[in-house]
Amino acid sequence: MTEEFEPKIVGFLCNWCSYAGADLAGVSRIQYPPNLRIIRVMCSGRVDPAFILEAFRSGADGVLIAGCHPGDCHYIAGNYKAQRRGILLKKLLEQFGVEPQRLKIEFVSASEGAKFAAVVKEMVETIKKLGPSPLKVQMEGLTYASG
Amino acid sequence: MEQSQKETSRIGVFICHCGINIGGVVNVPEVVEYAKTLPDVVYAEDNLYTCSSDGLNKIKESIAKYNLNRVIVASCTPRTHEPLFRATCEEAGVNKYLFEMANIREHCSWAHMHEHERATEKAKDIVRMAVAKARLLQPQTEPEIDVTPSALVIGGGISGIIAALCLADQRFKVSLVEKEPELGGMLRNLHKLYPTMQDASEGLEHFIQAVKSNKSIDVFTSTVVKEVKGFIGNFKVTLQKGNSETANLDIGTIVVATGATIFEPVGMYGYGEHENVITQLQLERLLKEGQLKKPEKVVMIQCVGSREEKGRTYCSRVCCMTALKNAMFIRELYPETDVYLLYRDLQTYGQHYEHHHREAQEKGIRFIKYAQEKPPEVVAGKNGKLEVNVYHALLGEQIKIESDLVVLSTPLIQHKDAKELSKMLKVPLGSDGFFFEAHVKLRPIEFATDGIYVCGTAHSPKDTAESVSQAFGVASRAAIPMALKRLRTEAITALVDEDLCSGCRICEAVCEYSAIEMQEKEGKQTSKVLEALCKGCGTCGASCPTGAITMRHFTDNQLVAQVRAAPQVAKEVTKHD
Amino acid sequence: MAEGELKYFIFLGCAIPYRVSAYEISTRKVMEKLGVKLEEMPEFNCCGLPMDPVSHEMMLLLAARNLCIAEEKNMSIMALCPGCAGTLNKVNTMLKNDKKLREEINEYLKVDGLEFKGIIEVKHLIQVLNDDVGLEKITAAVKKSLKGLKVAEHNGCHVLRPKEYMGFDDPEDPKVLKALIEATGAECLDYMDEAQCCGAPTAGINDKIPLQLSREKLTHIRDVGAQALITICPFCHMMFETNQMRIERMLNEKFGIPTLHYPQLLGLALGLSPEELALDELRVKPTEQLKQIGI
Amino acid sequence: MSKEKLKFAFYWAASCGGCEIAVLDINEKILDVVAIADIVFWPVAIDIKYKDVEAMPDKSIDVCFFNGAIRTEEQEHLAKLLRKKSKVLVAFGSCAHQGGIPGLANVANKKEVFERAYLQSPSTNNPNSVTPKTSFKVPEGELKLPEFFDTVKTLDQTVDVDYYLPGCPPPSAQVAKVVEAIAKNELPPKGSVLAPEKSVCDECPRKKEDKKISKIYRVYEITPDPERCLLEQGIICMGPATRGGCEAQCISANMPCTGCGGPCPNEVEQGAAMISALSSILGVGGERDLDYDAEKMIGQVKDPLGTFYKYSLPASFLRRRRIKK
Amino acid sequence: MEANKSILVIGGGIAGIQASLDLASRGMKVYLVEKTPSIGGRMSQLDKTFPTMDCSMCILAPKMIECFRHPNITLLTYSEVKEVKGSAGNFRVKILKKPRFVDLEKCTGCGECAQHCPVEVPNEFDMGLGVRKAIYVPFPQAVPLKYTIDDENCIKCRLCQRMCKAGSIDYDQQPETIDLNVGAIVVATGFELFDARTRSEYGYGKYQNVLTSLEFERLLSASGPTGGHLLRLSDGRIPRRIAFIQCVGSRSLKGGVSYCSSACCVYATKEGILIREHNPECEVYVFYNDLKVFGKGFQEFVNRAKDEWGVKYVRALPGEVVEDPKTGDLTIWYEDTTENVTKNMKADIVVLCPALVPRVASKELAGILGLELDEFGFMKSKDPLFAPVDTNRPGIYICGYCQGPKDIPESVAQASGSAARAAEVIIVATGKEAH
Amino acid sequence: MLQVEKGGAKETEQRAVLKITDMDPKFKYEISKIPGGEKIMLCFQCGTCTSDCPVARFSGAYRPRQIIRMTQLGLKKRVLESESLWLCASCFTCTDRCPQDVKVADIIRVLKNLAVKEGYVPPVFKVLASSILDTGYAYRIPEMRIKKREELGLPSLPKGNPQSLAKLTERIGFKKLLEAKSE
């Protein structure tokens, strides 16, 4: 009997909007699957693409970057940079044979508790459909620990 | 790597039940036991309420007892409780940046209330990630800078004058710079001021005298700002008078109050072609000087060169009221004169202006709404008169008005030299040409760059009352750093390793706060963070292609450690696995 | 006025004696039952409203003369027609409040030995019923509850507007007539555009617009399933009742909505017979409805 | 030269051979090399068989300069052998260092590589559809060929490496410096990359003014201002993310840097570093414009993997393309 | 402790918050008095703000928290000013602190009490569209995040007391009078909505699908009663057409206020865009009289609403809104004044943009402070041109909507202005901060 | 019966260009001095009056807002000649709802009064007026009807007092008003 695949997702959330949105989801007791591990950054603009690749390399099945809505960035425009990096990274991931849906760039405001929960839920469902990250699978000479 | 050379981490973990808010879902004792197994964790315990005074005392006691140098509280969101726990750590002699919080309430127990086991697993992961980061935390200090208690106000119109006076009344030194030979700005051209209809010159004269007699204010007329260097509290400003004379000032804060000028509608509605087509500003002058000869019929046209489809798309805010005011003055002066006001939408907002609108209606001003797509036409008529053809949008008919004076209401526009100033101060201009504030809603009178503020029509078209309101506001914002004398700046800032920086200037381009400056050393450029301006967003750190920028308290190492700890599947990934 | 003693001049106006006697008959019957004494107004004339478009002064004089006649006996006026009620009320208020106008009008009135003093009031029938008789007394007097009957009401304009003068009910959401109807036990339904005009005043100028207006109202009334329409105005009644079949013919519709004067409805509840209430004057016969309530 | 001469070895694995030429490119300095060292193994230049190497005592070679990535059994074998026999193993050039151009084969697997190279290539005439096999029977017996791996690896993914000398090929000045350091026994700590700490930008003479860009140009699309930073003119130049030492040779020839120097010392992943830098500045400041469209802005970058990992795919975090079976 | 170095700020909306922060961050002691249990004011109720479409709570919450944490600010929530004596530099103030029946020191904001409270009452924060409990925080991001028992509705079942692990419920709390000595006072009491019921031709209060703009704002808000789902309250149906009516009670000489409220045209535009964002299928009409686009970026905002979002503008002040009692659908009768045609339009929801009027309570407060009000009830400026934040009483300053119609940035700028004026008083009174 | 609809169509048809000389700037002041017309100048053309006018819903010609606008502009002749003026049902909805407190229905009435002075009187009003002057009642109630009242047990209808009315109306010249030029 195989256990149902439970994806591990790493989330980078900006302190001002998305982290607060995740807080609001909790405060409002909106339930969503416990697959996300949140890393708080001051701004989504802080997220270096290397962190995202590192997360995949470390065995994450998905990575979420959530920042303020366009125009709302506490630091004026960090979210735009995160968005652009995300777009380029998705293209790159696809070239690496990693489904781009495993990387999600979202705008979640401090008042969007429900949206945050919905984003996580949807992402978990998407990744469940995709299955475990191809990076976890053993390949020639390169063993990646499997969860 | 970096931490191994320093002291070894001794981490204490305090896990909160939050009554039953966490404890009712997450198996807290199990998480405590798990925490104890994590590297560098020397102590772990659970509390009913870690934030209660009882819980806080426990933290302090444990720091002493176990010689802890890193503290983790796993409870609720750091957004509300972090300051409290940080303060507790400081009280016990642990630098507040050596505290880390694990959010197992909002992000865990409350969001997974029916999945006790998985919530417990998640709580462990969250604690593990916190430990991974805490091991690498470094103490931080919040650097202080001195602030010169002296303000530079650029622009000697009513905004600049009021800002200067209010700052001087708060006992700061003020240098007021005006490029014209006289103070007063736009108000010098105006006749009466709505809504009180008092003489513009009367009000202005009072304030100019106040400025001149104020010992704290140095007035520089016929003078421009030539160079600005430095940052908040420590600006070095060079002024230039005429071609030769210059002055060097040490300045703490800068107020931009350069005002606006008026659009010259050359080629529109016969302006420049017929001499009896004038602008509203020219009419003001005629009224002010008592030079207006009795016209039989006056036609005023609104939105001339503003609210355009493309170009000057903005509404200039002051034109409707100015036209109403002048229309009423003409009627007062010459009761027999008919005044037609051709408008698109009347901007009679706020508590006073609608009243003036009604007054104008009662005084017999004729309002004709025209549509943007069918603008009026002004053509030469008989006997040197003008003929204005307008489609009355509310009557649905074309009207022909014979007029001997056409007055065009044109918008306020930015001065030509504003671009130069914006470059000098490194503050942006918006697409409308006006200075662009830090945040449209909540930081309306300051720039993203600390220590530089904006008020009056330099920011956007506005009337005297509104400019004055902003000028007082600016006098408060600019006073804050000067009143403090010393400024604590962010501890969480970027730091450039000069040995690695290759001067590519990418960080400079991405910084919204102009907090990165290039410096030259031995013929090579490297970037430097002006910590006083840095807000710590970390965008530069993420963008730096050489890894020369470290983000304090959110270092690459710390974040990568969290990333690696998150999926719990990665062993230390090395080159060989 | 002595406690419990309610006494008014009844102001019939022109239309009621001309064409709408059922309204008068049922009103007199009902008021008698409720203990309200009605006295005939001597020598009254047109309230003035029809002359307002021609000459405002003429209107004022006509109305003022009526008021003076009532003042001679120091008795307030109850009008059945909202037009009369509205006009007399308005002029009464204007003359009471505007000294200059009062003096001017009195100057004219002097010719015939009249003088406006401003000592009486003018009310419409439903105002008397609601304010002076009171819902409580009406409810208590109901002998035969009209429970189960679903009706719609139409106030007409002048009993409500202009608000500045009438003011006893909200013209946008009138409640008094509804309450009076519900006092009989009948249910008063909400329908679209309740406050809309019937169109009668334009009848002399244009033949189509008033019929279209009435048609629209009747459509909305039919849409909510009202079994009858209740009016308090002779003109509105003519539009909806007398003209109903004409509307049906002209605009190819079918309504069949019996339209009763309010006192007719109230009379039924008070135990009066259809004959006593002159129900036979109606063109659209409420046969079914009467059967339903057991009459 | 009182001391005994040093023993040098050179080996050429998966690479183009340019590195071999680079050794010669140090010109007269080659004489200095010969003066201090004997070359004990150099398949391209001297005839010494593998078995001769196997016969050498362990650690008998002082310095082995190993160029090329590891993509066959033979290369792996030789890497391991030379490691055993050498005191110091230097990953010489981009391929050994980061995987290099051959490393781009990691976007495919063996099957795809063979199909492309031996079957689909329009210039190939292969009517019998012959592809390499590890063994092939001929009348004379069975021929053995080394196994061709699915994945290209860097040298240090195969064996421990002492030093890295980046570049495609390593600039001769840099090679000369290394030889000098070896001669003087002044080598830095093990594991070091033998190149400057800073990026190509540090050596680039072009004027850098403002890195805000909004339009990307291919090299042939514009004639760039020779004085000004190429990246600022919209030409993707890997200089900012690439370790220097090359004196910005390509850029001086009006061509953008393509990144052969590998990542800067404090960056682990060169491609990610450049992706981050470029997407941060591409469209920066224009976000408030009405026609700002992040997708369109980034859409200008056509082939991120080929552009930003041209020399470093095998050394990258993700190393290769994952191919569904 | 120098008492007269401190300043009293009345009203915890964005203007009061900004004035407090300005003063506190320059080292002056501030008492911020707020009538309700949380600071945040009107802005906290907004979903987005025009013309940038900033999420209101995202940009406001950090300022609220900053107020809460600031060592120089003492928050006095659920409190009212009852008496003010003295003069500039030395005001003696009495403040009534209403009992919350919850110990602020002990309450951890966990919410266990509210989960078990059996009493549901209309939620003021959601303009009565949703419900809250008798023990409540006004909204999840409230500052302080402490519960309050609403004495009017509490049935004293003591369930909350039993549930509270922190032991913070205290039914014996009594009103408390606090005496303060302050040097200056800043008033920022904000606005409320004109009662749209008085415009009964639009059926507000009678028809369920006729809403005020603030109710509608809550309906749009992700944290609102429907969780941000745009639904019709009468039947839960997804609306296909929504119409906004401007100038409900404003620019009116009859029964309303004669001035223009300044914000409605643009916030309706914002709400219009939000509707289209929520559901591109839903049509939006804005009925306006004169489109007020005088602020920075307003005209461009309206242009975008028209061109990019397809919000439609009609120059008309509708005469009436009629409900079809069977379907709850609404018909709006209007004359398109640029076409000279009487038309009617069906809409699923009609949003009224009522005049924004000074708070009724500000009249009483003005009495206590000895301030003059203008004809509309706004706090009167000493000189509308050159002393906009000064009042007839030296040492007392005004800012925000209580001084006159304005939008958020104007309120914020003016709040700073009143802070500067208040600071001047303190500097003169204490002789400090001389350079 | 007047053919107002036709007249209306004539009115709305596009006129070439309206010259300012066609406008009498004093007209609005004239109106504003007559009771009911005081606030004419305050109309800001929001259209509420027209939108809630029951007649305007079915008539292509009657537009209270436009009548006010034309009056404001001084298009005196056009307004007073306008047959649609007489379509007003005087339901007062416009007056009740006008935000500017303009007494729209009263202004229309003032305009009708002026039109009468200028000689435009629809026949129906002449009939009504003469009936009032002759009998006191707006309608000439037939003898038969008066008799029937007795049968129905209703009190007899008081006789009007035309003499009194004649005295009262003489001074305002009401009769003359009607005798003036008529159609």
Can you walk me through this structure?
- The complex is a heterohexamer of chains A (147), B (577), C (295), D (325), E (435) and F (183).
- By secondary structure, chain A is of the alpha/beta class.
- Helix content of chain A is 37%, strand content 16%.
- In chain A, strand 1, helix 1 (18-27) and strand 2 (36-41) form a beta-alpha-beta unit.
- The radius of gyration of chain A is 15 Å and the shape is globular.
- Chain B has 577 residues and is of the alpha/beta class.
- Chain B has 16 helices and 30 strands.
- In chain B, helix 6 (158-169) packs parallel to helix 7.
- The model of chain B is unreliable at 1-5 and 569-577 (pLDDT under 50).
- Chain D has 325 residues and is an alpha/beta fold.
- Chain D folds into three domains: 6-102 and 151-183, NADH:ubiquinone oxidoreductase-like, 20kDa subunit (Rossmann fold); 112-149, no CATH class; 200-308, no CATH class.
- Chain E has two domains: 6-98 and 175-190 and 359-430, FAD/NAD(P)-binding domain (3-Layer(bba) Sandwich); 194-355, FAD/NAD(P)-binding domain (3-Layer(bba) Sandwich), CATH 3.50.50.
- In chain E, helix 1 (14-25) runs parallel beside helix 9.
- The longest helix of chain E is centred in the C-terminal third of the chain and has 23 residues, at 408-430.
- The interface between B and E is large, with 75 and 78 residues.
- Strand 22 (397-403) of chain B pairs parallel with strand 1 of chain F.
Sequence of strands across the biggest β-sheet of chain E = 5-2-1-13-24
Low-confidence stretches of chain E: none
CATH class of the largest domain in chain E, named: Alpha Beta
The first-to-last residue Cα distance of chain B is 20 Å
Q: What is the total tally of β strands of chain E?
A: 24
Overall radius of gyration of chain B? 32 Å
CATH architecture call of the largest domain in chain E = 3-Layer(bba) Sandwich
* Major beta sheet summary of chain E: 5 strands, parallel
